[in-house]
Amino acid sequence: MKSIIEVKNLTKEYRNLKALNNLSFDIFEGEILGLLGPNGSGKSTTINCILSLLNYNSGSIKIYNQEMQPDAYNIKKDIGVIFQDIAVFEELNVYDNIDYFCGLYVKNKDERKELIKDTIKLVGLEDFIKFYPKQLSGGLLRRLNIACGIAHKPKIIFLDEPTVAVDPQSRNNILNGIKKLRKQGATIIYTTHYMEEVELLCDRVIILDKGKIIASGTCDELKELINIEEKVTVEGIDINKNLLKKIRDLKNLKNINNHEKTLIITYQKGKNNLIKLIDFLKQENLPYSKIYSERPTLNDVFLELTGKDLRD
Description:
Helix content: 25-40%
CATH class of the largest domain: Alpha Beta
Number of helices: 11
Shape: globular
CATH architecture of the largest domain: 3-Layer(aba) Sandwich
Structural class: alpha/beta
C-alpha cells in the first residue's frame, strides 16, 4: 500500500509535559485508520500537528511526500476535517452551508452544484435542504457538519467522533456514509470512543497513550497481543467425569465449569477454540442443544492496554 501521510519522530511539549513523545507512523492510501486513546493521550494534538494547526518541537510530517506547512494550500485542498464540535452557520440553511464550505475549494458554480447534490444524497439530507441548523435534530446536524467537510471531495478525511450523541438511525447513516467515502477512494482518519465502530469500519488501528503508540495493527492483530480470555458455553450437555478430564486436557484451556447440563469453558488464548471443541464433542458423540462463543472485543483490548482508571 502507498503511504500518503508520514509522521516521523514527532514530539510536542507543553512546558514540562510531553504531549507527543517521538511519534512515528504512516497512513496508507485508501484505508480507514482508527486513531484511539483515552482522554489526554495525544490524539487531538497529533491531528492538529498533521494539519499544521499546531507547532511542534521536533520531527517531520509529510503528506503526498511533501513537507506539511501552515501555507501548504496545495495539500490542504485535498483534506477534509470534521471536528467533534459542530461548525456551521446558524444564519444559512442546509444547502447554503454546504455551498459555502465547498466554495472555499471549488470556485466553479456548476461543478460545485454537482458536488453539493452528491454530498446531500450521501448524508441523506435531501428533505432538509431549506432547513436552518436550529430546526435540525442532533443527528441531522451531525450529518450537515460532515457534509460541509466533505463536499469538495477531499482525498484525505479526518473524522473526530462523528457519531457522538446521535440516534441509532443517524449513526447507521453516518457509518454507511463513511464506508461509501472509502469506496470512492478517500483515506479516512477516524477517532472515536465507540470501539464497536472501530471494529466495523477500520482497516487498521493505532492506540495512543501518554503521547506514545502503545499498540498498532488490525483489530485481530491487537487481540492477539494480550492474554484476553474467550468463553465458550455449551448448553444441554451431559458429561461424565472421564469426558470432563479429556476436556481439561484441551489446549489453551484456563478454566472449566460444569453445572446443570451447562458447560462453560474459558480459554486463555489461541485460535479456533470453538471449532476444536465442536470437533471434540462430535468425536465423542456428545449431544448438546446450543454452543456459542463470547470472543474478546476491541474494548477489552483497549482497557487491558490503557488501564481501567478514570482519565480527566
